Protein: Methyltransferase
Organism: Paenibacillus chitinolyticus
Amino acid sequence: MLEPIPWNHVHTLVELGAGTGVFTQMIYDLVRPDCQVAVFEKEEEMRELLKREFCGFHMFSNALELKDSLSSIGADRVDCIVSGLPFANFSQAEREKIIRQVRETLREDGLFITFQYSLQMKTMLEAAFDEVSISLVPWNIPPAFVYTCK
């Protein structure tokens, strides 16, 4: 999932839906020391654990407030957004709001990478981005689709 990220050129990165922090740890290990990282996790206990573990990262609770949250730390435009959000659990309006904010906050040459367990988001992502590539990760349990959007 993190393979397409050009780590040497990423100065601002966002993670949506960090959960237990599996990707957060990898991001922590791979980002440049001067990279500004914002992590979104709705579940308060998990967010507090992440806050303690990754004290240099900005922590936020609601991906639906992506644009305002990033503005509050002076990161109006970002290089990369990585998402583990379970879009299938969101209403259509919420999915549209998040994807719209992703587009509005990504730099022109930015990357949006998300994994999903179905192709449900394919049409929406293809409408929102110029390039969308999809790869299947069969060894993930359950198998997952990784969307890389530019």
